[in-house]
Amino acid sequence: MAKDPLAEGGFYFDELNKLRVLEPDVSQKTSELKEECKDFVDKIGQFQKIVGSLIELVDELAKEAETEKMKAIGARNLLKSVAKQREAQQQQLQALITEKKMQLERYRIEYEALSKVESEQNEFIDQFILQK
Question: What positions belong to coiled-coil segments (predicted)?
């Protein structure tokens, strides 16, 4: 079989009978590689979009988590504050109870003293009336 003189010179005819510098199978593989590269670039673009939206979602969730964390810290501090206020109030009430008990004891002693004075005065009045 005779060799094509154009092929030996590096010139080829494609399927449309156009003169080409590349071999037809190399040209076809180049076109296939070009399409695969285009598909790859498209897929990379989609991947970047998906990753970008995922990063945004994670950032949003992180912000929400931080907000909830701050709310929890605030609630915990408020709870501690309320507990301290109750403890202080309880101490005040205990002091008031002690004060009232002491006042009651003074009144009881005063009542007993006045009752004794009243009974002595009634006795004195009875003796005074009997002597007359």
Answer: 79-117
Instruction: For Cα atoms 88, 92, 98, give the angle at the middle one, nearest 5 degrees.
Output: 145
Rg of the chain over CA atoms, in angstroms? 54
For 17-62, write each residue's pLDDT tens digit: 676 666 667 777 888 999 999 999 999 999 999 999 999 999 999 9
Three-state secondary structure readout of the chain: CCCCHHHHCCCEECCCCCEECCCHHHHHHHHHHHHHHHHHHHHHHHHHHHHHHHHHHHHHHHHHHHHHHHHHHHHHHHHHHHHHHHHHHHHHHHHHHHHHHHHHHHHHHHHHHHHHHHHHHHHHHHHHHHHC
At position 115, the amino acid (one-letter code) is S
Domain coordinates of the chain in residue numbers?
24-122
What tokens were used for 49? 């979009």
Cα–Cα distance for residue pair 121/117, rounded to 1 Å: 6
Distance, in Å, from the CA atom of 114 to the CA atom of 106, rounded to the nearest integer, reads 12
